[in-house]
Amino acid sequence: xxxxxxxxxxxxxxxxxxxxxxxxxxxxxxxxxxxxxxxxxxxxxxxxxxxxxxxxxxxxxxxxxxxxxxxxxxxxxxxxxxxxxxxxxxxxxxxxxxxxxxxxxxxxxxxxxxxxxxxxxxxxxxxxxxxxxxxxxxxxxxxxxxxxxxxxxxxxxxxxxxxxxxxxxxxxxxxxxxxxxxxxxxxxxxxxxxxxxxxxxxxxxxxxxxxxxxxxxxxxxxxxxxxxxxxxxxxxxxxxxxxxxxxxxxxxxxxxxxxxxxxxxxxxxxxxxxxxxxxxxxxxxxxxxxxxxxxxxxxxxxxxxxxxxxxxxxxxxxxxxxxxxxxxxxxxxxxxxxxxxxxxxxxxxxxxxxxxxxxxxxxxxxxxxxxxxxxxxxxxxxxxxxxxxxxxxxxxxxxxxxxxxxxxxxxxxxxxxxxxxxxxxxxxxxxxxxxxxxxxxxxxxxxxxxxxxxxxxxxxxxxxxxxxxxxxxxxxxxxxxxxxxxxxxxxxxxxxxxxxxxxxxxxxxxxxxxxxxxxxxxxxxxxxxxxxxxxxxxxxxxxxxxxxxxxxxxxxxxxxxxxxxxxxxxxxxxxxxxxxxxxxxxxxxxxxxxxxxxxxxxxxxxxxxxxxxxxxxxxxxxx
Length: 623
Fold this sequence. Notes:
The protein has 623 residues and is α/β, with parallel strands linked by helices. The chain is built from 22 helices and ten strands.
């Protein structure tokens, strides 16, 4: 991939400087996060003021030494001035440590607050958010953008405040010494500010593109470096294609890095050149004033040293404007996530589900999936798209406490969708889902989900120990309680045979365990939670006949007294259910016991006959 030349990059500055400016409320929102640290910020600024004032002493004292101390041969004053300089050096060093301590407190605190706010907001988003948002993008915003935002705040704050104070105190001192030379030094001020806006806009645009590309690469690595992704790439032999696609994105990041470096270097070189011209003018005119006896050599020397304290802050302040426009892009990217509304949240008057009995009611429920929109932004909604297909139609069923209800039907009939509405992973489009007679939208989600245990077809395990995965359901559970739940799920002997027993790390997504072992561990986790309502979504699909019989026996004991909604195609699960719901195209077309539905000779009878003939695929759990 060819890279642009320096001349092409500089030519592109004009075109890329048309990037949209920062949103006007960004600064206000940044200060909202910084407000808890206002006391430390005040101390930080105070230290900068004192440091800046102490920085004036060397040139002023040196000028006095040349004009007064040497002329009067006053060794006592020379010793005193030397001690003052030495003491100020120690004070500046001590203040530098204090300044660094406060800035790190502010910066690290800001990172903490932003990360926690982002993590909490994302964790509370509905499941639909995660189905359309790439994991790597979220990780990039949580890590890279948060750190960039912290640097934008603490780095820019120190630069701007420090240089403003240095510039102000230096100008006061220079005006006191020689006002004409001071005005001359300020004549070049417009040359510092004019390029800042143009260059800043260009850097702002390429910084955002760089962040987007890095987030994309992060997503690629997250997906491809997982066990499933790596296996898929290898099995399909797409290693070379993956390398080329990644190299294309990485090449663009490389080009952007070069372009950004050239923008910055060109800008700094121009500012340095302007500063050098101003310094030369001070030397030239100051020398003529000394020759004409208008000022002393000491004054000229002091001014020559102080003028650097004008152009250096001016250069830094001008660069700070550029830095703000680029670094605050990180804040905007963080705010984009925080601004994404959560359509499934607790109502202001939501209440807890106390001592749940497990009664579940679908009161004329219809459902369409929410509009599929962009990953981030205020357009997030829980409203269905006008063109979306309705998944459930007027579902009206009552499930009594302790009942075992099997849900069967062809693929895509809406079986999983029904079970997703109970723990409020989605909200019904029409009608209401009630638990113990209360609309789930009126309950606090935490208390609702505490009452529900779910075992899915492909249960998720964290890259942690067996014990930690089990304790996710009950953090305070003892080892004896873990073992009891594992025995109930017929998985204890397997765990005991692992190298470290319950302290064995299961690997990412539990890849050190077989499919059946993962499901039994998930069943143990559900039993440890001790919920009033259990949802089993093909929870025994990966078990062999022997293990299935053991787990079915364990579930029979574990589900006693609990309401169970079971999506399954195993004959034993279907025939033993208290109630069987037959779904087709999002509608309950048949309901009853096994014998009642067989007698009808309808869809259930066809599905059951298919199972007997070995056609279990006709009643798969999708939907």
